[in-house]
Amino acid sequence: MPNNLIATRSPAQTDPATHLECLGFIRAAISTADRQTAQDVAAVLKVCYQNGYVDRAKIWADLTQTE
Q1: Is 4 helix (H, G, I), strand (E, B) or coil?
Q2: Quick check: helix, strand or coil at residue 53?
Q3: pLDDT of 14-66, one tens digit each?
């Protein structure tokens, strides 16, 4: 029997404070222009995305074009 369930994240799981913190991490990584910092921030973001704490599309929407 095929599994027709689609994994979705409930909007109730996302955390506004974590969203703001992730934006801060991204901006800090950009401002330091350090490869290791960027990799560390990417790892944190990946965990946050996978666990549904933040919405990737909303993070990207809140970044400016230059970021």
Answers
A1: coil
A2: coil
A3: 889 999 999 999 999 999 999 999 999 999 999 999 988 999 999 999 999 99
**Tokens at 22, concatenated:** 């992730």
Helix/strand/coil for 66? coil
Q: Is 13's pLDDT higher than 90?
A: no
Biggest alpha carbon–alpha carbon distance for the chain: 51
How many whole angstroms separate alpha carbon 8 and alpha carbon 35?
32
Exposed, middle or buried, 26 (CB in 10 Å: 0-12/13-18/19+)? Answer: buried
Q: 4 falls in which pLDDT band (50, 70, 90)?
A: low
Cβ pair 48, 18 in contact under 8 A: yes
Return the closest-CA partner of residue 9 out of 67, 50, 64, 45: 50
